[in-house]
Amino acid sequence: MSSSDLPRPPITTQRSRFGERLILKGLLLCALLSIASTTAIVMVLGKESALFFQHVPLSDFLFGTEWHPVLNPPRFGVLPLVCGTFLIVAGAGLVALPIGLGTAIYLGEYASQRTRDIIKPVLEVLAGIPTVVYGYLALTLITPMIRAVFQNTGVFNAASAAIVVGIMILPMVASLCDDAIRAVPDGLRQGAHALGTTNFEVSTRVVVPAALSGIIASFVLAISRAIGETMAVTLAAGATPKLTLNPLESIQTMTAFIVQLSLGDTPNGTIEYQTIFAVGALLFVITLVMNVIAGRVLRRFREVYE
Question: Which domains does the chain have, with CATH numbers?
Fold first, then answer.
């Protein structure tokens, strides 16, 4: 039998295969665009940061305790910005992580379907509020409440900024943790109940450890979101680069400094202008290190509980 005598595939099959190849090429293009954009960001940050470090030693930048790049004489110690950033992140984590995890456990293990239908949309509304609104909320509501208790609190302070950032990332933590908890097989719950354990023991000793990889992933995403927050922190915490651990004082984060200097009259190509890229590169490295550590932790716990 010759090849011409063989039956040809239906036209619909040929069209479906062509559509699949087209979809695969589109997905490949999306992946290549992601790689290209990341490469472009790294190249820009690396180029401008290299020009900056030609004038400022790396040790002075990383370990200096004064940050005044536009004053005379300038100071380029980034520790005050790093300290302010982690002060906000720590406070936001104290607010969002336990409340978000507790909310997820309640929604996944105890709440009825009617209760879920009420609480989930409320969380989605919180996630959709613009960040500038959170900043004004901190100035008009949270800061007066803090000053009523601690009278030496400044108008701009890290505590109010940390609280609003914690409220901001709370929906992310609750939603992702809820998805991880609901993904745990019901067989684990039924087996634990068969051994005579209570609902609380099943939730805390069986379900949460089984969903630990997803919970940690939600924590990492939320902390990364808190590190990159700009507008709410700028409005609530002020713009005072100060090396302090007192949450009642005004501070400045790395992202807030980038916004402040980007909106000013700093000439392009000056060392003051290049500080934006140096701080951005440091922020990029911090986020990258966090993601690498989180990835290793996730792989470890996934091996334990799968």
Answer: 67-305 (1.10.3720.10)
